[in-house]
Structure formats: C-alpha cells, structure tokens
Design brief:
Number of helices: 2
Structural class: alpha+beta
Radius of gyration: 15 Å
Largest sheet: 2 strands, antiparallel
Number of strands: 2
Shape: flat
Bound molecules: iron/sulfur cluster
Strand order of the largest sheet: 1-2
Number of domains: 1
Helix content: 25-40%
Oligomer: single chain
Length: 67
Amino acid sequence: MNPVRLTIHDLDSDDGAAIPVETDERELDLFKEQICRWIYGIKNQGFEPKTGHLCGTCDFTKLCGSE
Ligand code: SF4
C-alpha cells in the first residue's frame, strides 16, 4: 500500500470533520497503531455509547447499550 493522502472522517463530530493525517513514516506508524487500537477495541466490544442527537434515528439503539 502506498497512500497518497490519509484523512480521518470524524463521524462523531457535528460538522463531519475531516482530519488530515501527515504521510511521513512516523505519522503513518502512529496512525497504524491508532487503527490497531480501534480494531482491538471494536473486536472486544470496548466502546461506550456516545449518546447525542443522532440516537433518535440510529439503527443500533438496542445494541449499543444506550437504552
Ligand atoms: S443509539 Fe447508540 S450507537 Fe446509535 S448514535 Fe446513539 S449511542 Fe451511538
């Protein structure tokens, strides 16, 4: 893989923020480590529901534990 540009699209922010990620080796390594932590957390269901204005239309209400 040879990424040209990396961007995190923060779906949790109200304005749909796009966060650019620098593509030098150090930043890429940090980004890979962050992705691994997210994947590990998801696999182990290690996340807390973050309730907000989207909950009313969310399909996962009964699954996420916010009820
Ligand atoms: S219902 Fe749960 S998963 Fe859906 S937006 Fe709210 S906190 Fe997130």
